[in-house]
Amino acid sequence: MGVYSSAGDWYWWLLLPVFLGSATCVFLFSGLSSFLDRWDLPAAVFPFNIIIILYLLCTGPEHPYFPHHSIKPPGALEPNATELIVIRGIPLGVGQIFACGDLGPSLLILGAVFLYSPLLAVHALLGSAVGTLTGLSMAVRHESLYSGLSGFNGALGCMAVGGFFIFSLWTHLFAIASAFFSAYADIALSNLMGTVGLPACSWAATLVATLMLLLTGSLAAYRIPTGQVRAPERNLQLRKKNNNNTEFP
User: Fold this and answer.
1) What's the predicted TM-score (pTM) here?
2) What is the pLDDT of residues 30-76, one digit of tens each?
3) What are the structural domains of the chain?
4) Nearest to 165 by CA among 154, 176, 155
């Protein structure tokens, strides 16, 4: 809400919808968790995505108390071509998960992820790179590439699948595929929702990762039950300790 607000800095009245929206997210998370638990699926960030879209729909760019910026579709054409240096957008794609568009704090966020799990940090960087490459292939606005907005859904999709499956070559490739699907879905949803001035938030990564977790077949044996997910390195250690049994301990 703070990122999209156009009421200026230190607009204290914004705390009211922030408090109410945050509290509502808790109730939605509880309800969705009970509903999705029958398929062993996480509620993930469905509550956040639902609340932020409802808030933006209820207010609008011209709202007298809670105005917000109108969102442009990422596929909108730009009149001037500029030199395209998008490497900087890859770490920013990780930072944009937390609405951070500055390089220094984004590197700190990536460093914190690395301290927790090097494998998860690798998936985050790979996913962001895939998202940026996807944005290039679809000729999205340069601003989306430079700021990391093209990469953060890919990073989320890659991290989610990489974290919910025991690490192996095939699950690693599966996570990268999830990053591609998330990035393309984000462009499609952003173009669709941008026509009415709304952001796609992280709907793409959330929906794609949820579908990926419903996978059946040989890769399903590597799937970790939602309540037992830990750092990827720890998951791998537990699987090896369990003598490569198909049932997670």
Assistant:
1) 0.87
2) 999 999 999 999 999 999 999 999 999 999 888 999 999 888 888 65
3) 1-70 (no CATH), 83-249 (1.10.3430.10)
4) 176
pLDDT, greater one: 6 or 239: 6
Residue-wise pLDDT for 65-119, tens only, equals 999 988 888 865 554 444 456 788 899 999 999 999 899 999 999 999 999 999 9
Scanning the structure block, which residue is given the tokens 């996807």? 134
Residue with tokens 């290039």: 136
Spatial CA neighbour of 74 closest among 131, 142, 156: 142
Measured from the Cβ of residue 245, the count of other Cβ atoms closer than 10 Å reads 10
Do 185 and 202 contact (CB within 8 A), yes or no?
no
Dihedral sign, Cα of residue 187, residue 189, residue 195, residue 197:
negative
Alpha carbon distance 180, 208 (integer Å): 10
CA distance 122 to 165: 15
68: β partners: 5
At how many degrees (to 10) do helices 46-58 and 203-213 cross? 150
